[in-house]
Write a structure and sequence with these properties.
This protein is an alpha/beta fold and 368 residues long. Helices cover 56% and strands 12% of the residues. One of its GO terms (cellular component) is cytoplasm.
Length: 368
């Protein structure tokens, strides 16, 4: 872009004096460059998201929405805006951030690109008003459509991860909580619930943030026990509610449709009620007596058998399950189990996780 002043341009030996850009023209060129860069950024981010919707999720509706948004954005990318591009003089091409160099997993990749798209659309909305009032309106509407797409996609991805999960760790207070959980994650664990009934909220918040970050680094789901407020505060993937906790309908209003809600059940009536109330998954147990549920009689393998025949949503057998009895629980019909002590008190959580998963995956393959 020419700066203020006069320029000599020689053509066939003839010197021509070129008038400088006016201040208004200079500003216009800057705005065009901003619009050009952000139109590219928005389309690129959407293409990254679209590829996962298409190949990762095989979801026609979300793939189509991504494509439609890209095409609408492209319709605003005029030759005039492209002509203002000046990549060689763009100082932003040299600026980067360590977080941009790596992605911990699909969810981190998707979230980074949603942020990229939303930020670009906001820039287009604001600077577009300087060029065309309709441009600001159009990109504002697109920005809200992307918010909806993010909600739907991330919720869908969470549900897909839930369906794939076979082993569920429910934590108990431990001096080595983070180390134990990470060891289990290294063994292939993909679903963790943070449970601590007695810690003060300051400690709970700190531990929940640390566990959430661990889960994201390993591509696992992170659930908070009981506390909807804590789940929202740390942006957890969902909450697990006991029979005495708030109704699922209230939790859903607070959490929204994209997060997971689980419910503990001890008998067929509670199971059917949880399903009717809209739980995403249920706990079935306690299968065996356990100090974690002190005073509760074991529901036994009969309830596991009932769940295998009647549950229409994912369910996890829970309560006293360990390496010595997991195959009995599997034989009763379980394909998913939740554990506490067998991992939290294990000397080698990674190996125990791998063994439990091997049994669950083996029977899953045999049942197909």
């Amino acid at each position: 872009m020419k700066q203020a002043g006069y320029y000599d341009e020689s053509t066939n030996g003839v010197v021509v004096m070129v008038e400088p850009y006016s201040q208004k023209q200079q500003i216009q060129q800057v705005v065009y460059r901003i619009l050009d860069a952000n139109l590219d950024r928005a389309r690129e981010g959407l293409r990254v998201i679209e590829e996962w919707c298409r190949f990762g999720l095989n979801n026609v509706q979300m793939t189509s929405e991504c494509k439609q948004l890209r095409q609408e954005i492209a319709s605003w990318h005029t030759a005039e805006l492209r002509a203002a591009r000046d990549t060689l003089c763009d100082t932003g091409t040299e600026i980067t951030h360590p977080q941009e160099e790596t992605r911990s997993g699909i969810r981190a990749l998707l979230q980074a690109n949603f942020c990229r798209v939303q930020e670009a659309l906001r820039v287009l909305e604001e600077y577009g008003k300087l060029v065309n009032s309709n441009m600001g309106i159009a990109f504002k509407q697109m920005r809200y459509r992307v918010y909806t797409l993010e909600t739907n996609l991330m919720g869908y991805e969470r549900h897909q991860m839930l369906l794939r999960a076979r082993l569920y760790l429910v934590t108990s207070p431990s001096e080595n909580l983070i180390g134990t959980v990470e060891a289990a994650l290294k063994g292939g664990l993909t679903l963790i619930q943070y449970r601590d009934k007695n810690a003060d909220d300051t400690l709970r918040l700190d531990l929940a943030v640390s566990l959430r970050d661990l889960c994201r680094n390993y591509g696992a789901l992170f659930i908070v026990n009981d506390r909807v407020d804590l789940a929202l505060a740390v942006d957890a993937d969902g909450v697990h509610l006991g029979q005495q906790d708030m109704p699922i309908s209230v939790a859903r209003q607070l959490l929204g449709p994209q997060r997971l809600i689980g419910r503990s059940t001890t008998n067929p009536q509670e199971m059917q009620q949880a399903i009717a109330d809209g739980a995403d998954y249920i706990g079935v147990g306690p299968v065996y007596e356990t100090p974690t549920k002190e005073g509760k009689a074991a529901a036994g393998l009969e309830y596991v058998q009932y769940a295998a025949q009647h549950s229409t949503i994912p369910w996890f057998a829970i309560g006293g399950i360990d390496t010595s009895n997991i195959n009995d629980v599997i034989d009763a019909g379980a394909s998913r189990v939740a554990v506490v002590r067998s991992l939290m008190q294990a000397e080698q959580p990674t190996l125990v996780t791998q063994y439990l998963l091997s049994q669950l995956n083996r029977i899953q393959s045999e049942r197909k």
